[in-house]
Every structure is written in C-alpha cells, then in structure tokens.
Amino acid sequence: MNEERIVEGVVLILVLLGTGITLISSLGVIRLPDVYTRAHATTKSATLGILCILLGTFVHFAYFHEIVSVRLLLGIVFVFLTAPVAGHMVIRSAHRSGVPLADISVQDMLKDDLERMAKQSEQDRSETADAKPGAQGGAESPEREEPAGGDSGQSGERERSEDSDPSKRESGETGPSV
Amino acid sequence: MFDALLLLSLFGLTISVGIALYRIFHRSSTISDRVLLLDSLSFIIIGMVAIVSIYLDTVAFLEVILLIGILAFMSTIALSRFIERGVVIERRTDR
Question: What's the burial of A103, exposed, middle or buried (CB within 10 Å: 0-12/13-18/19+)?
Fold first, then answer.
C-alpha cells in the first residue's frame, strides 16, 4: 500500500512538472517578440514538458499494470527526435522567406554570411567570365551573359523580403536544395 | 487526490492550448509563427492524451500518441517546405 503511494507520488510529480514546464513555454509564446525567439519557447521547453508527462505515464503503466509499453517508449523517442528538427525547418524557412526580426534584435549573423557568400560567388563568376572570352573568342558572349543574369535575379529574390506570395517565389527560387 | 491533481494538470494544459490558439489567430503573427505553434499545439495534445490515459486507466490511447506525433512532424515539414519554396515535393522539372 505504502509503495503504491510512493509510485503515485512519482507519477504525479512528473505529470505536474511537465504541465508547469509547458505553461512556462506558453508564457514565452505570449511574451517573446518575434518568431525566432518564440521558437526557443516552443521547441525546447515544450518538448521537455511533454517528455516529463510521457515518462510519468510510462511509470504509471509499468507499475500498476505491469505493462512496459513499447509504443509509449517509441512515442517518447519520436517526440524527442522530431521536435528539434521540425523547429529548425520552420525557422530556416522563415528566415529564407524573409520574416523580419524584432526591432530590439542587434545582429543577424546568418544574413551577413549569406550576403558574403553571394558576393564571393559573384566575384568568382566574374573572374571566370573575364577569363572565358580571351580563351574562346567573342562567339560565347550570349552564353556568358546568362548565368550572371540568373544570379542577380536570385540575389534580388532574396533581397525582396516582405514578399509572401508563393506563386511569385516559385518562379524565381533557385536556392540550394535540402 | 490523484485524480483531482490529474484533472488539475489537464486544466493547465488546456490553458496552454488556449494561449497557443490565441497566438495562432492573433493579427500580427506571421505564417511561420502559425506553423510553429501548430507543431507545439500537437505536442500539448499528445500530453493531454497521455494524462487522459492515466485518468481512465487504459492503454488503448497509447497508439494515438505515436500517431499524432508522426502526423505533426510530417505536416510541419511539409508546411515549412511550402513556405520556403512554394512546392512540397520537388521534381527536377520544377526548377
């Protein structure tokens, strides 16, 4: 009898702890200013809260019913593996489709890196384009124009940040695939 | 006592669902916000199903946990790919 009380207490502590952590993450959802900071609240602390609740459920069924539920263990592993991946995908798509940062944020290192890489690839392309007509003659010039034009269209696409129309983006998007 | 505290934590998760729905339907949230919060909403619903299965003392709902988890992951990936480039399944002829 006493032992059952202890296990019930453990289950209750795990479930209530998970509920508290989930409530704190909801507080973060209300209070934080933009989607990038809100992702901290939803992908990390909500996952921890749900894992605590599922662990409590597992302990309850393992003790009171003597069922070691493999489905529940699979659910725990699946939630633990997929929640960070899903959050990463959403935030990457948000940054690429140009969701603005909050006004109080001071640095966007990914944007700086993307601009630097675009500038570098432009430089490489112009170097090869300069080398090309000397070796192969002026007959190649229409083909030389094409990749430079495509590239400027791509960087212009990335600059036009507020655009949320998928049909416009579909035509011009040439970003690297996953 | 045990059942009452389980109902209390179910109530707390209901408040979380309400907050997530408020942020989803809020006027100033972007489409990425909504996808992120639908993902977190499905995780909260997983927790609610787990608590309900303790409360009703049955193992019948444990498949539902795994199923909601898989569906939430797939739909989040599909929606974020759609936001990113306008297509979900990419063929070579689309590019």
Answer: exposed
ipTM of the prediction:
0.88
Residue type, A130: D
* CA B85-A124-A113 angle, 5° bins: 50
Give the residue from chain A lying closest to B28, CA to CA.
A34
With residues binned 3-state (H G I as helix, E B as strand, rest as coil), the percentages for chain A, rounded to 5, are 80, 0, 20
Cβ separation of A91 and B5 shorter than 8 Å? no
Q: Is A66 left (phi over 0), alpha (psi -120 to 50) or beta?
A: left
Neighbouring residues of B61: CB distance < 8 A, sequence distance ≥ 6: B49, B50, B52, B53
Closest CB to B62 among A38, A71, A164: A71
Nearest chain A Cα to B13, which residue? A19
Q: Is the dihedral of CA B68, A73, B40, B32 positive or negative?
A: negative
Q: How far apart are CA A123 and CA A117, in angstroms?
A: 10
- A90 to B30: CB separation less than 8 angstroms, yes or no: no
User: Which alpha helices (H) appear in chain B, and where do they start and end?
Assistant: 2-24, 31-55, 62-85
- Cβ <8 Å between A12 and B80: no
Cα dihedral B94/A167/A93/A23 (nearest 10): -130
**Tens digits of per-residue pLDDT, A62-105?**
998 888 888 889 989 998 999 999 999 999 999 888 888 888 88
Q: Enter the pTM of the model.
A: 0.74
Among A20, A79, A91, whose Cβ lies nearest the Cβ of B43? A79
